[in-house]
Amino acid sequence: xxxxxxxxxxxxxxxxxxxxxxxxxxxxxxxxxxxxxxxxxxxxxxxxxxxxxxxxxxxxxxxxxxxxxxxxxxxxxxxxxxxxxxxxxxxxxxxxxxxxxxxxxxxxxxxxxxxxxxxxxxxxxxxxxxxxxxxxxxxxxxxxxxxxxxxxxxxxxxxxxxxxxxxxxxxxxxxxxxxxxxxxxxxxxxxxxxxxxxxxxxxxxxxxxxxxxxxxxxxxxxxxxxxxxxxxxxxxxxxxxxxxxxxxxxxxxxxxxxxxxxxxxxxxxxxxxxxxxxxxxxxxxxxxxxxxxxxxxxxxxxxxxxxxxxxxxxxxxxxxxxxxxxxxxxxxxxxxxxxxxxxxxxxxxxxxxxxxxxxx
Length: 360
What we know:
Elements: H1 3-10, E1 14-17, E2 35-39, E3 42-45, H2 46-88, H3 92-99, H4 109-118, H5 128-157, E4 160-163, E5 179-180, E6 187-193, H6 198-213, E7 218-224, H7 233-245, H8 249-258, H9 265-274, H10 279-287, H11 292-304, E8 312-315, E9 318-321, H12 326-345
Parallel strand pairs: 1-4, 6-7
Antiparallel strand pairs: 2-3, 5-7, 6-8, 8-9
Helix pairs in contact: 1-2, 2-3, 4-5, 7-8
């Protein structure tokens, strides 16, 4: 391909990655199940093994997906930069010098000193001059990384970049838990959480940001998963469910996460009164066992999906574990929204590993 062709192709640069993880190689015609072992005269089938390790394998596939996704992004970025350098007729190093190194602000002495004064304790065993030099280098590195990211994103905005690597999913049932968001939302987040878990408290603030950012595109379904290491978590879960019977689950949900150090029985009564619950009805509910089965079922459903810690989120079946930052949620949600849109307009599957600058 000549330079002119490369230039014209770059304008419609498309990156299409379509590699389903662990895809079946062919449909099996054998009627008999695959036997992988024998014990006590009985066969052990592959299906039995797969069922036993399904959730563990799902986590491994999720880790693999993240690693491969990261590698894909790295490859795409390098190729976009190389294509832009070729379009300008310069080397990649020259391009990066022009667009990155030449456009970052060199940290001033005052800026370096300000950081040093704010973090002086970290440099207690380091000479001041060496510490200042290290801070200056770190600031330059951070600014360089930020500028490079901005530049690459500008290249992406002018290219049709599509990543279709299929993420692993679990067929997670939303169930009948409390819901925020419209039933028509293309993205459903199933959350397993614990009101005494500090990471869950942090995550609840992030989830609130998610719902604010995607008011019509995300639906949240909450499930209780109180951990045995948290003494008040089970009681707090019951309090939230009792509040739900009065139509105020989410008010109690928010109150409990804002007061994670105040989850004793007397504290819960105070919280109930503060959100306007019928106090007598709440007290009767807390003393009754009619909600216990539902709480147990919530926990059991989480265990069936491999949940062992909190918080755990399944975004259209894709696992996000722990107090993940907002950026991780938005990355997955935006990807799911895009996939839904593509599925409705272009159901045809791409089979190529990559289509980049007109090359297959």
